[in-house]
Amino acid sequence: MAKIKYFYNPHSLDFEKVTTSMRSLALRVFGFLSASIVAGAIFLLAAYNFIDSPKEKILKREIENYKIQTELLNQKADKLSGVLSELQDRDASIYRSVFEADPISSTVRQGGFGGVEKYRELEGYESSDAIIAIHKKIDQLSKQLYVQSKSFDELSKLAENKTEFLAAIPAIQPIANKDLKRMASGFGYRIHPIYKTHKMHEGIDLQPLPVLRFMQQETEK
């Protein structure tokens, strides 16, 4: 049962019952509801900004994991770039020098690999810059690997030709020393024995002993 409240009226010098009109009651209810709504909104806003929901915590963990994986991919790409750079240096300073081939220019090795539109679908996200940077680095490595592969193919063909060339070069003396009488003619310019002109002699003439004896026998006849 609700308590009855009284107030002292100084005009009538008597206690009178407190009565609440419907308008006052409605205003009180409206004020209470308004204050509750404002307090609830402030609490929700604070909770939204400072307290993470379980779903937000999961998303934040995934974002942190994504950043770690992105950094690892960058490090791996840098290591691959270092290994490829070492191969390119060996290719230019050693391999191609051995086979007397012209080195591949840096313009060809660092050539373009795609236009601006190639990465258009990766734009518009918060992490677009990082993703595009990784794609560009991988595409650059792919282009350089392709050029280096073609260089190795060329060197392989040069090696085969070099092997055939070396096999055709005499590696031993064609006449044994016991049968060698003298060197008839050396390498270089000389007077041609038939045309009597100054010509280049591109070999070495060795005169074996059996041939010399045969020529002496023929002369005696």
Explain this structure to me?
The protein has 221 residues and is mainly alpha-helical. It has helices at 22-50, 54-98, 106-109, 128-168, 209-220, and strands at residues 6-9, 14-17, 180-185, 188-191, 198-201, 205-208. The strands form three sheets. The chain has a two-stranded antiparallel sheet with strand order 1-2. A two-stranded antiparallel ribbon has the order 3-6. The N and C termini lie far apart (165 Å). The model has no long low-confidence stretch (mean pLDDT 79).
In a few lines, what is going on in this structure?
The chain is mainly alpha-helical.
Give the mean pLDDT. Answer: 79
Main beta sheet: 2 strands, antiparallel
Helix content: 55-70%
Shape: rod-shaped
For the secondary structure, the number of strands is 6
Specify Rg, calculated over alpha carbons.
49 Å
Kindly estimate the percentage of residues that lie in beta strands according to DSSP: 5-15%
Pattern of helices and strands: EEHHHHEEEEH
- The helix-and-strand class reads mainly alpha
